[in-house]
Task: inverse folding
Protein backbone atom coordinates (compact mmCIF):
# COMPACT_ATOMS: atom_id res chain seq x y z
CA UNK A 1 0.00 0.00 0.00
CA UNK A 2 2.81 2.43 0.88
CA UNK A 3 4.60 1.71 -2.41
CA UNK A 4 1.38 2.18 -4.42
CA UNK A 5 0.67 5.51 -2.75
CA UNK A 6 4.25 6.73 -3.29
CA UNK A 7 4.00 5.81 -6.97
CA UNK A 8 0.64 7.58 -7.27
CA UNK A 9 1.99 10.73 -5.62
CA UNK A 10 5.02 10.69 -7.90
CA UNK A 11 2.85 10.35 -11.00
CA UNK A 12 0.61 13.20 -9.88
CA UNK A 13 3.61 15.43 -9.14
CA UNK A 14 5.15 14.69 -12.55
CA UNK A 15 1.86 15.46 -14.30
CA UNK A 16 1.48 18.78 -12.51
CA UNK A 17 5.12 19.77 -13.03
CA UNK A 18 5.19 18.72 -16.69
CA UNK A 19 1.98 20.43 -17.76
CA UNK A 20 2.19 23.69 -19.70
CA UNK A 21 -1.33 24.67 -18.68
CA UNK A 22 -3.60 23.90 -15.69
CA UNK A 23 -5.03 20.37 -15.80
CA UNK A 24 -8.57 19.63 -14.70
CA UNK A 25 -9.54 16.77 -12.41
CA UNK A 26 -10.92 14.88 -15.38
CA UNK A 27 -7.64 15.17 -17.29
CA UNK A 28 -5.63 14.06 -14.26
CA UNK A 29 -7.96 11.12 -13.70
CA UNK A 30 -7.54 9.96 -17.29
CA UNK A 31 -3.73 10.38 -17.12
CA UNK A 32 -3.00 8.39 -13.96
CA UNK A 33 -3.91 4.71 -13.94
CA UNK A 34 -4.40 4.56 -10.16
CA UNK A 35 -7.18 7.14 -10.40
CA UNK A 36 -8.88 5.22 -13.19
CA UNK A 37 -8.77 2.06 -11.06
CA UNK A 38 -10.12 3.92 -8.02
CA UNK A 39 -13.32 4.83 -9.81
CA UNK A 40 -13.79 1.47 -11.53
CA UNK A 41 -16.07 -0.98 -9.64
CA UNK A 42 -15.37 -4.70 -9.55
CA UNK A 43 -17.55 -5.26 -12.59
CA UNK A 44 -15.23 -3.18 -14.72
CA UNK A 45 -17.81 -0.62 -15.83
CA UNK A 46 -17.47 3.10 -15.37
CA UNK A 47 -18.23 4.03 -11.80
CA UNK A 48 -18.76 6.99 -9.54
CA UNK A 49 -16.19 9.77 -9.15
CA UNK A 50 -16.44 9.71 -5.36
CA UNK A 51 -13.48 7.37 -4.84
CA UNK A 52 -11.34 9.36 -7.24
CA UNK A 53 -12.29 12.71 -5.70
CA UNK A 54 -11.42 11.55 -2.18
CA UNK A 55 -8.12 10.05 -3.31
CA UNK A 56 -7.18 13.11 -5.36
CA UNK A 57 -7.89 15.56 -2.55
CA UNK A 58 -5.79 13.50 -0.11
CA UNK A 59 -2.94 13.22 -2.61
CA UNK A 60 -3.04 16.94 -3.36
CA UNK A 61 -2.87 17.76 0.35
CA UNK A 62 -0.01 15.28 0.85
CA UNK A 63 2.02 16.84 -1.97
CA UNK A 64 1.48 20.31 -0.56
CA UNK A 65 2.54 19.09 2.88
CA UNK A 66 5.72 17.70 1.28
CA UNK A 67 6.46 21.18 -0.08
CA UNK A 68 5.11 21.10 -3.64
CA UNK A 69 3.47 24.41 -4.57
CA UNK A 70 0.24 23.61 -6.44
CA UNK A 71 -1.71 26.49 -7.97
CA UNK A 72 -5.49 26.32 -8.42
CA UNK A 73 -6.61 28.15 -11.56
CA UNK A 74 -10.12 28.77 -12.89
CA UNK A 75 -10.55 29.23 -16.66
CA UNK A 76 -13.11 31.36 -18.51
CA UNK A 77 -15.63 28.51 -18.50
CA UNK A 78 -15.43 28.23 -14.72
CA UNK A 79 -13.56 24.90 -14.79
CA UNK A 80 -10.92 24.48 -12.08
CA UNK A 81 -7.44 23.31 -13.06
CA UNK A 82 -4.23 22.52 -11.21
CA UNK A 83 -0.63 23.34 -12.04
CA UNK A 84 2.75 23.10 -10.29
CA UNK A 85 4.89 25.83 -11.82
CA UNK A 86 8.54 24.94 -12.12
CA UNK A 87 9.72 28.40 -11.05
CA UNK A 88 7.69 28.10 -7.82
CA UNK A 89 9.10 24.64 -7.04
CA UNK A 90 12.75 25.20 -7.86
CA UNK A 91 15.25 25.28 -5.01
CA UNK A 92 17.71 28.18 -4.94
CA UNK A 93 21.35 27.46 -5.82
CA UNK A 94 23.19 25.64 -3.03
CA UNK A 95 26.30 27.47 -1.88
CA UNK A 96 28.33 25.89 0.89
CA UNK A 97 31.70 27.04 2.09
CA UNK A 98 34.40 24.65 3.27
CA UNK A 99 33.30 24.84 6.93
CA UNK A 100 29.65 24.10 6.14
CA UNK A 101 30.58 21.19 3.89
CA UNK A 102 32.87 19.83 6.60
CA UNK A 103 30.01 20.00 9.11
CA UNK A 104 27.78 17.98 6.77
CA UNK A 105 30.54 15.43 6.25
CA UNK A 106 31.02 15.17 9.99
CA UNK A 107 27.30 14.54 10.48
CA UNK A 108 27.38 11.78 7.86
CA UNK A 109 30.36 10.11 9.54
CA UNK A 110 28.58 10.13 12.88
CA UNK A 111 25.90 7.83 11.45
CA UNK A 112 28.25 5.37 9.70
CA UNK A 113 27.35 2.58 12.11
CA UNK A 114 23.61 3.29 12.05
CA UNK A 115 20.97 2.38 9.50
CA UNK A 116 20.91 6.06 8.54
CA UNK A 117 24.33 5.72 6.89
CA UNK A 118 22.81 5.19 3.43
CA UNK A 119 20.49 8.19 3.76
CA UNK A 120 23.32 10.43 4.98
CA UNK A 121 25.58 9.34 2.13
CA UNK A 122 22.80 9.84 -0.41
CA UNK A 123 22.09 13.33 0.92
CA UNK A 124 25.71 14.36 0.41
CA UNK A 125 25.68 12.96 -3.12
CA UNK A 126 22.59 15.03 -3.91
CA UNK A 127 24.30 18.13 -2.54
CA UNK A 128 27.27 17.43 -4.77
CA UNK A 129 24.98 17.11 -7.79
CA UNK A 130 23.19 20.33 -6.82
CA UNK A 131 26.32 22.43 -6.80
CA UNK A 132 28.53 21.57 -3.83
CA UNK A 133 31.97 23.03 -4.69
CA UNK A 134 34.15 20.44 -6.42
CA UNK A 135 37.20 21.44 -4.38
CA UNK A 136 35.42 20.61 -1.11
CA UNK A 137 35.47 17.00 0.08
CA UNK A 138 32.80 16.51 2.81
CA UNK A 139 34.30 13.12 3.68
CA UNK A 140 37.80 14.50 4.25
CA UNK A 141 39.14 13.90 7.75
CA UNK A 142 39.34 17.14 9.73
CA UNK A 143 40.91 15.85 12.91
CA UNK A 144 42.49 12.92 14.68
CA UNK A 145 39.18 11.83 16.22
CA UNK A 146 36.44 10.35 14.06
CA UNK A 147 33.05 10.50 15.81
CA UNK A 148 30.52 7.70 15.58
CA UNK A 149 27.23 7.05 17.30
CA UNK A 150 26.70 3.30 17.56
CA UNK A 151 23.08 2.23 17.25
CA UNK A 152 22.61 -1.44 18.04
CA UNK A 153 19.08 -1.38 19.43
CA UNK A 154 16.36 -2.57 17.07
CA UNK A 155 13.98 -0.06 18.66
CA UNK A 156 15.98 2.95 17.44
CA UNK A 157 14.64 3.25 13.89
CA UNK A 158 10.91 2.78 14.64
CA UNK A 159 11.17 5.20 17.56
CA UNK A 160 13.03 7.76 15.47
CA UNK A 161 10.28 7.61 12.84
CA UNK A 162 7.58 7.79 15.53
CA UNK A 163 9.21 10.92 16.99
CA UNK A 164 9.32 12.48 13.54
CA UNK A 165 5.73 11.60 12.65
CA UNK A 166 4.30 12.27 16.15
CA UNK A 167 2.87 8.74 16.44
CA UNK A 168 2.17 7.08 19.80
CA UNK A 169 3.89 3.72 20.29
CA UNK A 170 3.54 0.60 22.41
CA UNK A 171 6.48 -1.52 23.58
CA UNK A 172 7.57 -3.87 26.34
CA UNK A 173 10.02 -2.28 28.80
CA UNK A 174 12.07 -3.92 31.53
CA UNK A 175 13.12 -1.63 34.36
CA UNK A 176 16.48 -2.30 36.00
CA UNK A 177 14.68 -3.15 39.26
CA UNK A 178 12.11 -5.46 37.63
CA UNK A 179 12.43 -9.11 36.73
CA UNK A 180 9.97 -8.95 33.81
CA UNK A 181 9.12 -6.36 31.16
CA UNK A 182 5.80 -4.55 31.19
CA UNK A 183 3.89 -2.72 28.42
CA UNK A 184 4.37 1.02 28.00
CA UNK A 185 2.09 3.25 25.92
CA UNK A 186 4.19 6.31 25.06
CA UNK A 187 3.95 9.50 23.05
CA UNK A 188 7.59 9.82 21.89
CA UNK A 189 9.24 13.23 21.95
CA UNK A 190 12.93 12.80 21.17
CA UNK A 191 15.90 10.43 21.26
CA UNK A 192 19.07 11.45 23.08
CA UNK A 193 22.44 9.75 23.47
CA UNK A 194 24.14 9.89 26.89
CA UNK A 195 27.28 7.99 27.94
CA UNK A 196 27.03 5.85 24.81
CA UNK A 197 23.43 4.81 25.57
CA UNK A 198 20.28 5.90 23.76
CA UNK A 199 17.28 7.20 25.68
CA UNK A 200 13.74 8.01 24.62
CA UNK A 201 11.95 10.94 26.25
CA UNK A 202 8.19 11.00 26.02
CA UNK A 203 4.80 11.08 27.69
CA UNK A 204 3.75 7.83 29.38
CA UNK A 205 -0.02 7.64 28.90
CA UNK A 206 -0.56 4.98 31.55
CA UNK A 207 1.25 7.02 34.23
CA UNK A 208 0.10 10.40 32.99
CA UNK A 209 3.59 11.92 33.17
CA UNK A 210 6.81 12.38 31.22
CA UNK A 211 9.23 9.47 31.36
CA UNK A 212 12.61 8.49 29.95
CA UNK A 213 13.33 4.99 28.63
CA UNK A 214 16.68 3.41 27.89
CA UNK A 215 16.48 1.73 24.48
CA UNK A 216 18.55 -1.26 25.54
CA UNK A 217 15.77 -2.20 27.99
CA UNK A 218 13.05 -2.24 25.33
CA UNK A 219 12.19 -5.82 24.42
CA UNK A 220 10.28 -7.08 21.41
CA UNK A 221 8.84 -4.97 18.63
CA UNK A 222 7.88 -1.31 18.81
CA UNK A 223 4.30 -0.98 17.54
CA UNK A 224 2.38 2.11 16.44
CA UNK A 225 -0.81 2.88 18.32
CA UNK A 226 -3.08 5.37 16.57
CA UNK A 227 -2.25 8.95 15.68
CA UNK A 228 -2.11 12.24 17.53
CA UNK A 229 -0.67 13.23 20.90
CA UNK A 230 -2.76 13.93 23.98
CA UNK A 231 -0.05 15.88 25.84
CA UNK A 232 1.87 18.96 24.67
CA UNK A 233 5.41 18.38 23.41
CA UNK A 234 8.00 20.50 25.26
CA UNK A 235 10.71 22.37 23.44
CA UNK A 236 14.02 20.70 22.61
CA UNK A 237 15.88 22.23 25.56
CA UNK A 238 13.35 20.88 28.06
CA UNK A 239 13.49 17.40 26.54
CA UNK A 240 17.27 17.34 26.71
CA UNK A 241 17.19 18.46 30.33
CA UNK A 242 14.67 15.72 31.10
CA UNK A 243 16.88 13.06 29.52
CA UNK A 244 19.94 14.43 31.29
CA UNK A 245 18.17 14.35 34.64
CA UNK A 246 16.85 10.80 34.25
CA UNK A 247 20.23 9.62 32.97
CA UNK A 248 21.93 10.98 36.08
CA UNK A 249 23.64 13.92 34.38
CA UNK A 250 21.93 16.56 36.54
CA UNK A 251 22.80 16.27 40.23
CA UNK A 252 21.59 18.38 43.13
CA UNK A 253 23.46 16.63 45.97
CA UNK A 254 26.38 14.30 46.69
CA UNK A 255 26.80 10.62 47.51
CA UNK A 256 29.58 8.86 49.36
CA UNK A 257 30.72 5.50 48.00
CA UNK A 258 33.52 3.01 48.56
CA UNK A 259 35.26 1.93 45.34
CA UNK A 260 37.77 -0.86 44.83
CA UNK A 261 41.23 0.44 43.88
CA UNK A 262 41.92 0.28 40.16
CA UNK A 263 38.22 -0.08 39.27
CA UNK A 264 35.39 2.23 38.24
CA UNK A 265 37.29 4.77 36.16
CA UNK A 266 34.05 6.55 35.00
CA UNK A 267 33.12 7.06 38.66
CA UNK A 268 36.56 8.40 39.48
CA UNK A 269 36.32 10.85 36.56
CA UNK A 270 33.11 12.34 38.03
CA UNK A 271 34.28 12.33 41.67
CA UNK A 272 34.57 15.67 43.45
CA UNK A 273 36.77 14.15 46.19
CA UNK A 274 38.82 10.93 46.52
CA UNK A 275 40.42 9.50 49.68
CA UNK A 276 42.52 6.35 49.94
CA UNK A 277 41.22 3.95 52.62
CA UNK A 278 43.84 1.24 52.25
CA UNK A 279 43.21 -2.51 51.91
CA UNK A 280 42.43 -2.00 48.19
CA UNK A 281 39.59 0.51 48.65
CA UNK A 282 39.06 4.24 48.06
CA UNK A 283 36.33 6.58 49.25
CA UNK A 284 34.72 8.85 46.65
CA UNK A 285 32.29 11.72 46.81
CA UNK A 286 30.27 11.86 43.58
CA UNK A 287 27.32 13.93 42.28
CA UNK A 288 23.99 12.30 43.07
CA UNK A 289 21.11 12.66 40.63
CA UNK A 290 18.31 10.54 39.24
CA UNK A 291 19.60 7.28 37.76
CA UNK A 292 22.76 7.02 39.86
CA UNK A 293 21.55 3.80 41.52
CA UNK A 294 21.19 2.08 38.12
CA UNK A 295 24.67 3.22 37.14
CA UNK A 296 26.29 2.02 40.36
CA UNK A 297 24.75 -1.43 39.96
CA UNK A 298 26.72 -1.86 36.73
CA UNK A 299 29.97 -1.91 38.75
CA UNK A 300 28.83 -4.89 40.81
CA UNK A 301 31.00 -5.86 43.83
CA UNK A 302 33.50 -3.07 43.14
CA UNK A 303 31.15 -0.46 44.65
CA UNK A 304 29.66 -0.09 48.13
CA UNK A 305 27.30 2.81 48.84
CA UNK A 306 27.92 4.48 52.19
CA UNK A 307 25.39 7.32 52.06
CA UNK A 308 22.74 8.56 51.64
CA UNK A 309 20.67 5.68 52.99
CA UNK A 310 18.02 6.00 50.27
CA UNK A 311 20.61 5.53 47.52
CA UNK A 312 22.02 2.49 49.31
CA UNK A 313 18.52 1.01 49.58
CA UNK A 314 17.83 1.61 45.89
CA UNK A 315 21.08 -0.11 44.87
CA UNK A 316 20.33 -3.09 47.14
CA UNK A 317 16.83 -3.40 45.64
CA UNK A 318 18.23 -3.43 42.13
CA UNK A 319 20.83 -6.05 43.01
CA UNK A 320 18.15 -8.26 44.55
CA UNK A 321 16.02 -7.93 41.43
CA UNK A 322 18.98 -8.95 39.26
CA UNK A 323 19.72 -11.92 41.54
CA UNK A 324 16.11 -13.12 41.20
CA UNK A 325 16.48 -13.04 37.41
Result:
Amino acid sequence: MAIAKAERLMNLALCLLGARRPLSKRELRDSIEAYVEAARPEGGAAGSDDSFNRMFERDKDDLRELGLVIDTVENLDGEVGYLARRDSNRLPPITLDAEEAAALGLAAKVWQQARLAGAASGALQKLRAAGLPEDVDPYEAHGALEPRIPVHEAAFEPLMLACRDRRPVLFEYRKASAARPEPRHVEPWALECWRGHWYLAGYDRDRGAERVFRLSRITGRVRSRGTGFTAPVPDVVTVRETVAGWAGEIADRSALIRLRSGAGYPLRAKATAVRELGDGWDELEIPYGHGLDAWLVEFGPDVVVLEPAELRADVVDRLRAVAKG
